[in-house]
Design goal:
Number of strands: 12
Number of helices: 5
Radius of gyration: 20 Å
Strand content: 25-35%
Oligomer: single chain
Shape: globular
Strand order of the largest sheet: 4-5-6-7-12-11-10-9
Helix content: 10-25%
Structural class: alpha+beta
Largest sheet: 8 strands, antiparallel
Distance between the termini: 60 Å
Length: 184
Amino acid sequence: MKNIQYLLILLIALTLIHCEDDRDPNFLITSSQVGKLLRSSNVGDLESIYTNDSIVRDTLQSNLLSASNTIKIYEKGGQQLLTITVNRDSISKVGIIRVLDPRFTTEEGIGLQSTFKEIKDKYVIKKIVTSLNNVIIFIENSDVYFTIDKEELPASLRYDTSIDIEEVQIPDDSKIKYMMVGWE
């Protein structure tokens, strides 16, 4: 009887371990990829990378310039996945990616539905930059950064742009407003 109990516990443990690695690679953010998009990808590769999705270029900018600086990626069915800002060097590369779909998560499991506490628990915070309406959190050794709306902060910190906001001043339950990846 004890052998059956041990076997059952082992089977449950193996199932739980296997479930942890069941993340969809199409929505995984690592140091070298954001879902299907690789860091080494050129802008010209987007059509082949997102063959089953829709790519929308900023038509106003493309009429004024030779090519668009902003590209939006939509899943078939209308859900916007990403907004890509193009780095305009000699070869057009992906510069900044704004993640819009909550299914995207980092290897540590952080995504748009995460809180500031989850960011602190999983990463070392490199720097916090205060802007007019937001606080931007930069992560040590990562291209991912997060924006939190100042409305999530205590009232005494919301309206003074000269205050340098520190990690301890941001409430743990603050929600992520934007999640970005900068490959510039």
